[in-house]
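re the bet — no i am not wrong, look at it urself. input seq straight from the record:
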Amino acid sequence: MALSHSSVDAEAAARLVAFGMRPKQLPARDVVYGDLVRRYGEDNAFKALTHAVAAGLGLMVLEVNQQAGAVLAATDESVFEIKMDSYARQAKIRERRETEKVLHGLIHLATAALGYPRPDDLANDTYIGRVSVEQVDAMVREAARMLDERAAAAEANNDPLADAPELEQAWRAYTRRPAAAATKDGRLAADTTRGMVSRALRFLADQGFLVPVSDEQGGTYRTTPRYQIQVRELAADAAFDDLLALDVVAVATAGGTLRAAASDTL
C-alpha cells in the first residue's frame, strides 16, 4: 500500500531527527542528509513537522544547517537525556558521587568558555576555537585561586557567601587533586584533574563537539559548528557568565588561538 504524503513527510522528518542523533554524521558526507537539511530550510511545514517529531521524542531542535547538520538537545526527563551515570560510563569516571558531577561540570564549563570566550565568537559561524587539556585544567585552577581569594576576603569582612555563584562551592574539591601524576605504565592517572579533563574532552569529541588536532598540551582539539550551537545555549547559564567574569581567559593571537590566562603562572 502506498504511503500518503503526510506519512512520507513524517518519515522524512523522523529521518532528519535520526541523523541529528548521530554526532559525527554531517550533511556534506551524506546526500540524503544534505537534501533533508535543505528541505528544512526551505519548507516551513516540513520544519514544523521536524520540530513536532523531535518534541514527541523528548528532544528540542536547536539548529539545522549544512555546517552542523541537525543539532538536538534533550529536554528534562527525556529518555535521551545524558544522566550522570551514563556520562560516567562513557567518560569512564570511576566515582559517580555528587562531587564528581560538580567537578566534571566545571571542566565542561571551562571548555566552553575557552572555546568561545567572546560573544562575537559565538555569533560568528566561521569561528573555530581551540582548547587543550592543559589549558582547561589551568583555567579551572586559576578560577579556583580567584574564588579562594574572594571567599577569604568575604570571610575577613564578615560578608555572607550565600549569594555566591555555584563555582565558589566547587573550587576546593578541584584544587585538592593533583594536576598530573603518571601510573606505573606511564599513563595519566585517572584521578588527577588533567586525567579528568582528558576524559571529558574525549567524550566531547565522541559527541561530535570537538575534533582532535594534536597531542600537544596533553591533547589539543578544535571546536565544531555543532559545539558552537550547544555553547550558545549554555551561554544563557549564569554559571557561564560567572566564569567569564573572572577574566581568566585571554586570546593569544589574532587568529583566535586561545590559552588560559593562568597558564604562565602554573
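see?? Strands lie at 59-65, 69-74, 130-132, 210-214, 220-223, 249-251, 258-260. told u. also Confidence is low (pLDDT under 50) at residues 250-266. so pay up
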